[in-house]
Structure formats: C-alpha cells, structure tokens
Amino acid sequence: MSRVKRGVLISFEGVEGSGKTTQAQALAAWLEAGGLPYRFIREPGMTPIGEKIRDLLLDPSHLIHPQCELLLFLAARSQLVRETILPALEAKQIVVADRFTDSTTAYQIYGRGLPPRLVAIFNRFAAAGLKPDLTFLVDIDANERHARGKDRDRMEREDESYHQRVRAGYLKLAQRAKKRVRIIDGRQPADKITHDVIGHVKTFLINKGYQP
C-alpha cells in the first residue's frame, strides 16, 4: 500500500438485466477474500438520503418527468460522493461501483434525449468532478434483457426502444473512452466474465501500487 497515492474507482455499467450487479459483487467478494481495502456501492442509494430517493425513482407507480428524474439521480449521487466515495478514496480504498456517471449519459442523454451539454455539466457537478478509473460495460441486447425477465421496477419496465437507445449510448460512450471502458459480452457464462474481470483488475491494481 505504500505506493498507493489515492484510492481507485472501478465502475460496472450496462442495461437493466445485463448482469453488471453480479459482476460488481463478485469483484467485491474477491477483494474481500484478498484482504484488500474496498468499498462497494450501488446507485442510486447507499446513504439514508439516497435510499429515499431510490424508492421514489424506482417505484413503478410514479410518473416522473425526465428532467425531474435526472435531478433526483444526481441528488442521490451528490450525497453518495461526498458522504462515502470521496472519504473512501482518501483512505486509499478500492471503490467498486454498481453504476456511476456513465449511467447518466446513457439513460438521460441517449435514453431520454435530454440536452447533452447541460446534463454533462450537472453530472460533473454532482460527482465533484470524479470519473471512474476503470469501467466494465457488461453488454447485452435489449431483447436478451427482456428474455431474462427483469421488469420489476420503473426503469426496467420502460419499453424496449428506450433500452435499445440506452445500450447504443453505452456503446458510443465506450468508443469515446477506450482506455477506460472495457466492453464485456454479457451473453457469456457469469463465471467466465468474473474470471476475465478479476484478471484485468488484478493487473490494473498492481499498476496502481496495490498488492493483490
């Protein structure tokens, strides 16, 4: 740990039902088993305020305007960043995030069609300028998502054209950030994906001064 200057932020992204949460949790379990300092988070939520916002956002009985939806997601992120993520990074922990700023780009800009420049400004403000150091995009087609039966909350119940736009947004984002974003084929067996993710993370952490 003596070579570690600050913690790192590793995020997992993907459409609903992609399997990103499974992979984020698997990485956290590997870090735990290896005795590495880490913090697992998922968005929205993970703070008392954020959990209340999460309940509002995901309740399928709520009709939420896209602008209101954006601000609620960002409010939850702002609290999480300042209450949890920044202190964890200062403590040289490895923060594993089930969603972060890329979700806003994919869901609110590409999915909802909100103004890219304005959303980007708000997104940076809410995240205190933080960007993930490494991102895994677990990619599946929206039709595959639907076949997995993930239609419980308000976001999951959006029509397939919406989820296709979100997926397209993620892929465009990944093309613009090739050094940071690794695209993972979400159709592979979960254990194969986990093996590949851990292999890449191990090399990444060694380069950052950790000893996995």
Unreliable stretches: none
Straight-line distance between termini: 10 Å
Number of strands: 5
What is the H/E string?
Answer: EHEHHEHHEHHEH
For the record, the CATH class is Alpha Beta
Q: And the CATH topology?
A: Rossmann fold
- Going across the biggest sheet, name each strand in turn: 2-3-1-4-5
Query: Any idea what the shape is?
Result: globular
Main sheet specs:
5 strands, parallel
CATH architecture descriptor name? 3-Layer(aba) Sandwich
Number of helices: 8
Q: What percent strand? A: 5-15%
Mean pLDDT: 94
Helix content: 40-55%
Mind telling me the C-alpha Rg?
Answer: 17 Å
Give the tally of structural domains: 1
Could you give me the name of the CATH homologous superfamily?
A: P-loop containing nucleotide triphosphate hydrolases
Structural class: alpha/beta
What features would you describe in this structure?
The N and C termini lie close together (10 Å). This protein is of the alpha/beta class and 212 residues long. The protein contains eight helices and five strands, in the order E-H-E-H-H-E-H-H-E-H-H-E-H. The model has no long low-confidence stretch (mean pLDDT 94). It has helices at residues 20-33, 48-58, 66-90, 101-111, 116-126, 142-147, 160-176, 190-207, and strands at 8-13, 38-42, 94-98, 134-139, 181-185. It has a five-stranded parallel β-sheet, sandwiched between helices.
